[in-house]
Specification:
alpha/beta, Rossmann fold, Arc Repressor Mutant, subunit A, four-stranded antiparallel β-sheet
């Protein structure tokens, strides 16, 4: 799952990027508001961690412009978590009224940041439960754990990310390009046929019918009929 971090403090930005990567996210890190706005106009993200005190364009203005966009495919409905040293009630109200979904004041705990992001992504996908369950497979993003037939299924980070993306979008076809966009941040080398290899391994570890190939389009985990 791909996250955009917008933070001009080099040490803090580097720590956030490293911490979220450790939690299994692909992370793009922008250091100013203009670069953040450009990234949001071109790349798909699951959520944004947005500082307010940014150079070139304030975080609040980035948020306002993001929420005012009308064109589809530009992240206008993306969950936004404001991360800032400004912690007065007025600042929180201003950020939330401008379209933020959550607010976390500096200094903060990295575990809390990751947990808040998981909650935002869950709500954005229409799920309130912490774990995803489709076709007898249960995926817990917080524990980074997959269970099938009451057994824990071990899998590396990229396989977990592919399964997570397909389960979050159960009932929708995801193309290879869309899955790659969730797996790799800017600057990371996209491995040849990586998605196909991960899908093959997931089918072997779980069951072959879980992930369907829609020829010429992409991959699909069908939604449970009673979901």
């Amino acid at each position: 799952m791909r996250i955009l971090v917008v933070e001009d403090d080099a040490l803090l930005g580097d720590a956030i990027q490293a911490g979220l990567k450790q939690s299994g996210y692909a992370v793009d890190w922008m250091k100013d508001g203009v670069s953040a706005e450009q990234a949001l106009g071109t790349e798909p993200y699951a959520a944004v961690v947005l500082d307010l005190g940014l150079p070139r364009l304030s975080g609040l203005e980035v948020l306002r412009r993001l929420r005012s966009r009308k064109a589809p495919g530009h992240n206008e409905h993306i969950p936004v978590l404001i991360l800032t040293a400004l912690d007065s009630v007025e600042d929180r109200i201003k950020g939330l009224d401008s379209g933020a979904d959550d607010y976390l004041a500096k200094p903060f705990d990295m575990g809390e940041l990751a947990a808040r992001l998981r909650a935002l992504v869950r709500r954005a996908s229409g799920s309130a439960a912490p774990a995803l369950k489709v076709a007898g497979v249960a995926l817990d993003p917080a524990a980074h754990q997959v269970r099938y037939r009451n057994q824990t299924v071990e899998m590396p980070a990229k396989e977990f990310a592919v399964l997570h993306a397909l389960m979050v979008n159960a009932g929708k076809v995801m193309s290879r390009a869309q899955l790659e966009e969730q797996l790799y941040a800017w600057g990371e080398e996209v491995e040849s046929n990586a998605v196909e290899v991960h899908v093959h391994h997931l089918r072997r570890k779980l069951f072959p019918e879980l992930i369907q190939t829609i020829r010429g389009v992409g991959y699909l985990i069908p939604a449970d009929k009673d979901a």
